[in-house]
TrEMBL record:
Keywords tagged on the record: Signal
Keyword match Signal: yes
UniProt superkingdom: Bacteria
This protein's name: Ig-like domain-containing protein
Region: Disordered, residue numbers: 308-331
Signal peptide interval: 1-26
């Protein structure tokens, strides 16, 4: 399946709620079994987070190969408002690893909120740079947001797949991908604009005709340690715009696109909101002077309400419930699927 048809099928299914695929090899695609997920209550100190593996896929890769991995999870029927994380943990040859997590709170079934039914996509590029087998495992991570009661919620459906096993790299041989650094990067009255995640200038082969650009953002409401007190019954309003630029050989702008934009008003009790942005059909210009050199970023504009922030790498996540070993997982990130 080529990248552009993938965008129409698997990536743009994010808004349609549907997936159209061609038959996949068993080793590179798995459908999750519906199941009840335990979400332990908050302890007096720290977090007791449950980690439930729900499927794994493997792919034999060459040293120059880049693949595209996608995990979709839908959950509902929560007994208590709970954290729901869709995490993918990948390991490969030579000790290579790359992990990504996207999260959002799921409201309890009696809340009457549409946020009691949540679908999250975790998707990114894998490029170990060494020949060997890459194995990726999808985990449901979560905990109850109550200090007096554990919870359960239902994994209704989902899948993990290598959606494209031959993604075009930049001319430097690397995939076009970038994640936001660790921490919560502020959005508030003092810092009303951020441009995260950002893809710095990258050059693509002259044969590339178009770009499928994705910016997946985690917005946190009521940023920890902010100087302004948080109203837990308040919300934050933020506008998100995906910018894509193509450049000329003399360094001037050839073409720009900012057609993908959304404004979100997010209450504190959601706490962190998944905001996906996708321009699937940015056509490469061949006008005089234009070259296949690009950059892209998501611009966030804080429009009012509670303090907020863009979440970067989540550090020191336990490998399992009660585990003493940990790993880091990227959160807000951007990448390009050239076609």
């Amino acid at each position: 399946m080529n990248v552009r048809s993938l965008a129409a099928a698997a990536v743009l299914a994010l808004t349609a709620g549907l997936l159209v695929t061609t038959p996949a090899q068993a080793a590179t695609s798995v459908t999750f079994t519906p199941q009840t997920i335990l979400a332990p209550m908050l302890p007096k100190e720290g977090v007791d987070q449950n980690v439930t593996p729900v499927g794994s896929v493997s792919l034999d890769m060459t040293a120059t190969q880049t693949a595209y991995v996608v995990s979709k999870m839908r959950v509902n029927d929560a007994t208590v408002r709970s954290l729901f994380d869709n995490e993918v943990v990948c390991h490969g040859p030579g000790g290579w690893s790359k992990n990504m997590v996207i999260g959002q709170n799921v409201y309890d079934v009696d809340s009457g909120s549409p946020l009691q039914d949540v679908t999250l996509y975790t998707r990114f590029l894998v490029h170990p740079g060494v020949a060997g087998t890459v194995t990726c495992t999808a985990n449901v991570r979560g905990n109850s947001l109550s200090r007096t009661s554990s919870a359960t919620y239902r994994l209704v459906s989902g899948y993990l797949m290598f959606a494209d096993t031959s993604v075009t790299n930049a001319t430097n041989g690397q995939p076009v991908q970038s994640s936001v650094s660790v921490g919560v990067h502020p959005l508030d009255q003092d810092t009303p604009v951020q441009r995260l995640p950002a893809l710095d200038y990258f050059d693509l082969p002259s044969t590339v005709q178009g770009l499928n650009v994705v910016g997946d953002v985690e917005l946190m409401v009521c940023r920890p340690y902010a100087s302004t007190p948080c109203d837990r019954y308040g919300s934050a309003t933020v506008k998100f715009t995906l910018f894509i630029n193509q450049w000329k050989s003399d360094g001037s702008l050839c073409k720009t696109d900012s057609s993908i934009a959304v404004t979100q008003t997010v209450p504190y009790w959601v706490h962190h909101k998944y905001v996906p942005l996708n321009k699937a059909d940015f056509t490469v210009s061949t006008a005089p002077g234009c070259i296949p050199r690009f950059n892209a970023y998501v611009k966030e504009e804080w429009l009012g309400g509670e303090t907020s922030g863009i979440q970067g790498v989540s550090p020191d996540l336990p490998d399992g419930r009660g585990s003493t070993t940990t790993h880091d997982s990227d959160m807000s990130h951007a990448y390009v699927l050239p076609y």
